[in-house]
Amino acid sequence: MDPSADETAFGPAAFAQLAYTNTGAPASATTDAHITTDGKFLYVRFDASQSQKIGTGDTVGIDLWPAGSTGNFYRFAASPSGTQEANAAAAAAAPSWTASGATFDGGYAVTMKIPLAGLHGVSGNGPWNVQLVRSIGANGQQLVWSHDGAAAPADDLAQAGTMTLPASVSSL
Fold it and tell me: 8: helix, coil or strand?
């Protein structure tokens, strides 16, 4: 889970781009996410370009609702250095997980390793509701993967996309 390794070393993985802000506008910066699993862990990698100074308020994360609207909500977020970001609403139910980060000229990469056994309400491979998120501290933008165009918080289940964890990983 080396965030400074080339993203091709992370494959095979599903790929998604965070192309919108949480208001539905086009994203101002490129953020790519790669997701894969070995059946025991969910591995997530974010590659984020950033022209502004990297600092306070910069985070990437994945929001999971494995059982949909009737189950638990989990947010796993980390700073560019890999420091885990606390979310009081989701922290009580979240399993112990790891994150690593690396900055480079023009952006940063973060990798996450999330134990599937620690997620309550998981039934099979899905589909799960999922949202990929990024906050840019310098301009206050919040980027998301899935969005229907209406202004809404990034952790709004109604804005989430879906993910299935098949035996062989396919596209989100």
Answer: helix
How far is 7 from 159, CA to CA, in rounded Å?
Answer: 27
pLDDT, tens digit (0-9, with 9 covering 90-100), for 67-105: 877 778 889 999 999 999 866 555 567 788 999 999 999
Domain boundaries, the chain: 7-149
| 3-class SS of residue 90 | helix
Count of Cβ atoms closer than 10 Å to residue 139 Cβ: 11
Q: How far apart are CA 112 and CA 75, in angstroms?
A: 12
pTM of the model: 0.87
Name the phi and psi angles at 129, rounded to 5.
-85, 135
- Please name the CATH architecture into which domain 7-149 falls: Sandwich (2.60)
Distance in angstroms (rounded) separating the CA atoms of residues 127 and 163? 5
Nearest-angstrom CA–CA distance, 115 and 43: 9
Could you give the CA distance from residue 46 to residue 3 in angstroms, rounded to a whole number? 9
The answer to whether 163 and 127 are in contact (CB under 8 A) is yes
**CA 65 vs CA 85, 114, 120, 165: distances in Å:** 18, 14, 10, 13
Query: Which residue is associated with the tokens 């781009």?
Result: 17
Q: How far apart are CA 168 and CA 52, in angstroms?
A: 37
